[in-house]
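Need Lipoprotein's 3D structure for a figure. Predict it.
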Amino acid sequence: MTLTKTRTAAASSLAAAGLLLTLAACSTPAANQPSSSAPASSASASASASGSCSNGVQVVVDSGALKQAAADTSVCVPVNGPTAATKVLEEAKVKTEGTTQYPNEVVCRVNGVPAADFDIKHKDGTYREDCSKMPAAFAYWGLWVKPVSGDWAFAQEGLATLQLKPGESFELLFTVDDQPASPAA
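Structure prediction for Lipoprotein:
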């Protein structure tokens, strides 16, 4: 193997490993996970004009570079305290699909996007996501969290263990070739 191929392979491995660690933090067994404190009521559009959701979690789905508006949404989900991200998404009526290899830790599709037959255009050609293993390091759904007073940050846990608090915002953002690099302000 040439030095260039070795470096490319190493970079790809590091990118995949980094994505795995960021998106798919080890989950705890279901019996040990904290229960949700979300009320039984359905999601509500009670966000203020600034987009904040003081009595809940503002959930945003942005198909980003895919430009699949049918998947996009923004809704305020009422919560009383720390609540599992999976429960918040369920209340927001946002459907996620994991991968065969990482069914609960990684997000492969959101509201059916990208579809299995959808060509994702990227700098090296096209790609189709089959959701069998870790999504490509150049085309993936990123999990982002914005605290009550702070900036957007990449989630430090996978979907299976992430807890969200009242006043926070949570975004699922699809990125292709690092674009968009982060959620809009």
